[in-house]
Structures are given as structure tokens and as C-alpha cells.
Amino acid sequence: MNDKAVIRSPMTRERLCRCLANGSSRGSSESEGQNPSAAPSLRRGDHDLNPGTEPSAPLTPAAVLVPVIDHAKGMTVLFTRRTEHLLHHGGQISFPGGHIEKDDGDAEQTALRETEEEVGLDRRRVDIIGRLDNYTTGTGFRITPVVGVVEPPLDLDPDPYEVAEVFEVPMDFFLEPANYQRHNQVFEGRRREYYAIPYGGYYIWGATAGMLVNLYERISSP
């Protein structure tokens, strides 16, 4: 990510809406950014830090909700910690979301449905205000991050099979460039880099951290 100055002004719903309305921070076309069925853009994804690792098409479309909680004392971002027994990404920090199903209609409906199923947040409580850039994973998914604002108090009912914990992180934490790190590990015989954002006892990394980098860049863009 670009090392920009710390963003000092407080984040508000209006400012966040303006930042998201500016479009992709990578300059992708409107059709790529707004149409979940459009040809996938590989401008953002796990391959950002690992050139030459772009997955082969076709990609599986998916969507996540980036839930921004509009507390009176400041915005927070809501995350889930997946249960350890899950086959894919067990124990990892993530946004609620999943595969786009044919009956969903669009990425927004997928994000709302999955969030309702995973954490029990009524979709009527979520005000969708925009999208981040599509994010391509090395495992072959094209994820559309949908940003939605929720007014507290929250009335959650997490699915114990999928969700071990639901927690919030102050939005201000993600506006500090020093909190973004680049780590690496060997995967399938090759050393790969990824973004990581440690917060207290939580370790946010991989695709979720990459989407937060996108959010930071969108907010910090002039």
C-alpha cells in the first residue's frame, strides 16, 4: 500500500459515502466495479504482492459485507472469527459473506443474506452505501466487498457452527498506515507475501486485510 499521511479528520457516514462514490482506487471501469457478472478484473487480489500467481479463469463469484457500525463515539468495523472446525479458513478473521447464488440477484443481496445467516443481523438494518474493488483470491474466488452502515444497538444471533466470535475494531485504527504490515510464509513450495493487520489478540490477514487496504486507499485518496 502507499505510505500516506495519517488521516486525522473523524470519519462520518457522509464522508465515507463520498469516498466510496469516487470509484475504484485502481481505475477499474464502472462495469467491473458495479456489475458482479462482468468479466473479472485482476487489478486487486492476492496476486498484488505475488506477481505471476493470478488464478486461472473462470473465477467463482462471491460477496462479503463490510459492516460499519455508526456509534455516537465513532465508527467501528465488524468482523467474525470463523470456527476452527470449518474446512476452509477455519479460525480466521473475516467479513460475513459467501458464494453468490443464482437467486441472489446481485452482490448486495448475497452480502446481506450471508450476514443475516452468519451473525443474525437483519438485512433491513443495513444501509448499503457502496462497494470496494473486486478482490481476486489465489483460490479462485472473485469477491465483491459491499460496504454497509448499521446504526446501533446491534441485535446479533451468530450461527455457532460457523462463527466463533463477533467483534468490532475502531475505524480510526484502519486509518493509520503504520498498522498495515506485510508478512510472508511458504505455501505450496513458494514464499508468498500478504497483508496483515494485528489488533490486540486478533490477526487480520489475507483477503480481509487486502480489502481493508483498499478501504484505506479509497478514504485517503484526494
Q: Any chance you could write out the topology, listing elements then pairs?
A:
Layout: H1 13-21, H2 30-34, E1 60-71, E2 74-82, E3 93-94, E4 97-99, H3 107-119, E5 126-131, E6 135-136, E7 141-150, E8 163-170, E9 181-187, E10 190-199, E11 202-205, H4 206-220
Parallel strand pairs: 1-7
Antiparallel strand pairs: 1-2, 1-4, 2-3, 2-8, 5-7, 6-7, 9-10, 10-11
Structure in words:
This protein is of the alpha+beta class. The chain has one domain (13-220): Alpha-Beta Complex (Nucleoside Triphosphate Pyrophosphohydrolase). The protein is 19% helix and 33% strand. The chain has four helices and eleven strands, in the order H-H-E-E-E-E-H-E-E-E-E-E-E-E-H. Strands 1, 2, 3, 4, 5, 6, 7 and 8 form an eight-stranded mixed beta sheet that branches. The longest helix is centred in the C-terminal third of the chain and has 15 residues, at 206-220. It is globular, with a radius of gyration of 16 Å. The model is unreliable at 27-42 (pLDDT under 50).
Element-level helix/strand string? HHEEEEHEEEEEEEH
Number of self-contained structural domains: 1
The number of strands is 11
**From the 3D coordinates, which CATH architecture would you assign?**
Alpha-Beta Complex
Low-confidence stretches: 27-42
Structural class of the helix and strand makeup?
Answer: alpha+beta
- How many strands, which pairing sense, and closed or not: the largest β-sheet? 8 strands, mixed
Report a brief summary of the structure.
With 222 residues, the protein is an alpha+beta fold.
Distinctive features:
222 residues, Nucleoside Triphosphate Pyrophosphohydrolase, eight-stranded mixed sheet, three-stranded antiparallel sheet, 11 strands, 19% helix, 33% strand, globular
